[in-house]
Request: fold
Amino acid sequence: GAGVSQSPSNKVTEKGKDVELRCDPISGHTALYWYRQSLGQGLEFLIYFQGNSAPDKSGLPSDRFSAERTGGSVSTLTIQRTQQEDSAVYLCASSDFSGAYNEQFFGPGTRLTVL
Amino acid sequence: LAKTTQPISMDSYEGQEVNITCSHNNIATNDYITWYQQFPSQGPRFIIQGYKTKVTNEVASLFIPADRKSSTLSLPRVSLSDTAVYYCLVGPPLSGGYNKLIFGAGTRLAVHP
Reply:
């Protein structure tokens, strides 16, 4: 079946512009996660959705970052007034808690470059 | 949340067995130990999970001693395609449900011909 998809795959923007990153989770997965991965680093948790609500936003680095999820499916991560330190790969994952391992399924990521 | 420590990098050759050890001294009694693999330009993918003793699947084996303060991922007869970053994580909880995965820097495995 279809996995997690993300768009765009690459985004280049200028400092100060707003960007929107999209995640389409696996159909039926109620949990959705956003992570950020800087070059050569591990993943940094940003936010978790259960359905359309976000019980854990503890990883959002500043109020320039926001995310929403609609219809229990697609999620959008918005970064306002982008800064160069926002450059990273943004990864989305989904899970349904019913699998034997409760694993997260990751998308390919969106590579964001802020000039 | 329990912190994990694993080697930054390892080198191996095709056909050899690779063992990557991870320490997690503060692991909670209700947490699994999970390993993910990440290829360049891809998201991580689940490879194996265990709670105690030994777990084996078609990809790898996971050895967990009785005190659960460490775990060892074993990759039998590696090939060039096993070149990737391997992450050791504490979690998810045995009870299931939400789990915030804390990824360390991982171990960068390079397999040479």
